[in-house]
Design a protein that fits this description.
mainly alpha
Length: 56
């Protein structure tokens, strides 16, 4: 996921952080599906953050 994000953002860490924050703030809008269950998207974003911040 981080490699895909880097490709879309040109490797700009600030933009990547902004995109992650947007997923937390309004995941349904970010998914393109206004009816998407926001809690499911937040759980996915939380999981990815935990994996990203865990020791390898």
């Amino acid at each position: 996921m981080d490699e895909l994000s880097a490709w879309f953002t040109g490797g700009d860490a600030g933009i990547s952080a902004g995109v992650r924050a947007a997923w937390q703030d309004d995941p349904a809008a970010m998914s393109g599906d206004g009816g998407a269950p926001a809690d499911d998207w937040r759980k996915l974003a939380d999981y990815l953050d935990r994996v990203r911040n865990s020791p390898a």
